[in-house]
User: What shape does this take?
Amino acid sequence: MTISTFRVAAMDCPSEEQLIKMKLADLDGVDRVAVDLDTRQVTVEHDLDPSLVTAALQTLELGTTHLDDLGEITGVGDPRRERHALWIALAINSGFFIGEMAAGIISGSMGLVADALDMGADASVYALSLVAVAATAARKRQLARFSAYMQFGLAAAGLLEVTRRAVAATGLPETRSMIVMSLLALGGNFVTLLVLRGVLSGEPHIQASWIFTSNDIKVNLLVIAAAIGVLITDSAAPDLIVGGLIFLVVANGARRILKISR
Assistant: This one.
C-alpha cells in the first residue's frame, strides 16, 4: 500500500473537495482519501502507480502536483458523520438556491440570480457525493452528466439574459435586496464551511482564513460589491458584469463535472 501526497493549488472550497473525492472513487485501488483545505493538500492511500492518481487529479484542472509518497494519511473521518455533514451542506445550499433565485427575480438583480445558480451548483455536488456511495458507477456518471448539462443550460440562459439587459434599457436592480440576501448567503456559506472543514477533512479546528479560501464567499462579496457599484454609478452595469462572471464560473464548474462523468 502506497501513501501519496499531492498539492492541489486551485482547491479552495468544500465543493471542489467533493469533486476530488468523486474522481478518486472511480479508481480501483484507492483505499482512503484525506483532504486539507488549509494547506490545499490531498493524501491518498492506494496500491496503484502514483502517476495514475496524479493523472486522474490533473484532469480536474485544479493545478495538481505530486509531492511525495512518504506521508501518513490523517484526518479520515467517520463516514456517518461525513454523510450528516453533507446533508447539512445540501440543505443550506438548496435553501439559498431557492431563496436567492426568488429574490434575484423580484429585485431584478442578475448578480443574485447568478449567485443562486452557484449555490445550486454546489448543492448538486453535495447531492452527487451522497448518492455516490450506493449508486453504481454508471448511475453515478449519468447523474453527474445530468447535473452538469442542467448547470450549463442555466448558465447559458443567464448569460443570454445578461446580454439582453446590457443591450436593452432595463431598470436598476433593487440594491437593498441584493445586499441583505448576499449577507444571509454569506452566513449560510460560513456555516457550511465550518461543518465541512470540521468533519469531512477530519480536522475540527477552523481557521480565520475561511473567508479568503471559499469561492462561494467570494461570490457573495462580489454581489455586495455590485450592489454598491449600482448605488454609486446609478447604472445596472456592475450587477450585469458580476452576474456574467458568476455564470461563467458555474459553466466552468459544470465542465469539470462532465470530465469526471467521462
The longest helix spans residues 137-167. The CA atoms of residues 32 and 45 lie 5 Å apart. Residues 202-213 have pLDDT under 50 and may be disordered.
